[in-house]
Amino acid sequence: MKTLLIVYHTMTGGTRQMAGAAAAGAGDEAGVAVRLQTAVQTQPADLLAADGYLFATPENLAAMAGLMKDFFDRCYYPALGQLNGRPYAALICAGSDGQGALRQLERIATGWRLKAAAPGLIVCTHAQTPERILAPKVIGPEDLARCRDTGAALAAGLALGVF
What we know:
The protein has helices at residues 14-27, 44-48, 66-79, 99-111, 130-134, 141-160; strands spanning 2-8, 32-38, 52-60, 63-64, 87-94, 115-116, 121-124. By secondary structure, it is α/β, with parallel strands linked by helices. It has one domain (2-160): Rossmann fold.
């Protein structure tokens, strides 16, 4: 059985909804175990035990969230050279364009020699004021469906041995 590890961080709930939708889509695929866990609880051993990854982060100040970056900081060197060729996908919950967070995540994945299984998916909430930025987020059904499809496609590729 293959394992898909979904690592996420959230402050306002939007990224958690996106990661949950991806996990639901991936969970429909026979032969793939899905592990959904926060960035804070994820350790290098979790990465080494998985066959593919989905990383989900909010965009904060035009970059990935600090606790997601902390996950990569803690796990990068212990896993370096041991994840080569494994597939990954990225989900970004952004208040604006999300490109800065996606670029950071893609650079880290390149260093780990991961293979992008899908283009990064950015969901823009258009939160631009302090009140809207800090408010709980509700991700719309169309965006959640896109997240679900990303998880399903990644799991299907793992199950079929495409990756």
